[in-house]
Request: fold
Amino acid sequence: MAFFKRELSPVERFESTLKFKQAERDRLTERLRLSEVALVERRTAAEKLAVAGAANARLERAEASMREVEERARAATLATNTNAPRPRPSLCNTIVPAMSGCTPSSRC
Reply:
């Protein structure tokens, strides 16, 4: 039983954080791969139904299912893409619009 924990060095903290981030990236990459596989399967099933002349209700269900998986794949793609630009709120519009004299049309 250890009552006192030693403090980690900056290098150890960095290595720990790096391992955690790499594991998270690997999980997201696997989630993306599974989503893409599911999307291909759903698309193939929907195409087979369309070729077979299935009823509109079945085709609509297949399309909704395909859209759901496609949305999950899109979210996983955005989560794994670290170079994707993230929207940043403008300080002028959120914190001090009246004090700075900025208008929505002006660039601050």
